[in-house]
Amino acid sequence: MNRIATNIWAKHSLGIIYILMIGYLCAYIFPLLIAFLWQIEVPFVRDYLALWQHSYLLAERPWTLLTYSLFHASLLHCFFNAIMLYFVGVLFMNLFTPKRFLSIYVGGVVAGGLLFMLLYAVLPVFAGHDDYLLGASAGIMAPLLFLATYTPSYRIYLFGIFSIPLWTIGALLVLIDLVSIPIGNAGGHIAHLGGALVGFLYALHLKGGFRRLLPKRKAKTAYQGKYPNQATEQRINTILDKISKSGYDSLTKEEKKFLFVASKEED
């Protein structure tokens, strides 16, 4: 049964992306429909499903650490996040499985919410402010920054003319969030940074970046110990080095397939 499920996911790797996009749309329409049919105010979403900065409210409504990411403040907000989710998902599934995407996405949602609460609690500038989070941007930033760190040389073509390396897009988005905090929607931009941090650290871990910060005892490869076959480990590291130097597009079809299959085995 597990093998059958794995084959289904392999053929329909964007399934989780479509489910999330439908979830965004339903979460936007449902409150409006309920408000119309029962003639009530829409703010029940804000009061019971959004994430507020107060820790006592999180203790009373722990589900809000996840539900805030499904609901959006406006249709434009919902549409923009759905588009971003789709393009990030397409890039991500070239290398990894839906299972890994979902783990990074949820990690970004949780980290974004917690960083928002932490900074609102400790920074004097936010003292006396009541604020809340709605939107999936923190979750989307996590896999985006993961890719920007894991495959920094991968190039995105805008309008078929401009070629931009993925690391530039990631760095630019982080910079925009940093400089935008004093301007407006501080909580949202802080949450974006929390999600970005999760993606960056996870990619660094996967590439073995943390080992370079430790005292060197003997040479270790980025995938040492994760596969029983040493030749498999060496080939994975060779492919990763090729991606870092020349980008994902430089890989052959066989190399892309090998890396994807290896990532599934690791999951």
Brief sketch in words of this structure:
It is found in: Membrane. The protein has 267 residues and is mostly helical. It is built from 12 helices and 4 strands; from the N terminus they run αααβααααβαββαααα.
The description of the largest β-sheet is:
2 strands, antiparallel
Integer-rounded radius of gyration:
20 Å
| Spatial order of strands in the largest sheet | 1-2
Mean pLDDT: 83
Number of distinct helices: 12
* Portion of residues within helices: 55-70%
Class by helix and strand content? mainly alpha
Please trace the helix and strand order, writing H or E for each element.
HHHEHHHHEHEEHHHH
State which percent range the strand residues make up. Answer: under 5%
Number of strands: 4
> Which segments are poorly predicted (pLDDT under 50) over 5 or more consecutive residues?
1-11, 217-228
Query: Cα distance, first to last residue?
Result: 17 Å
Q: What overall form do the CA principal axes indicate?
A: globular
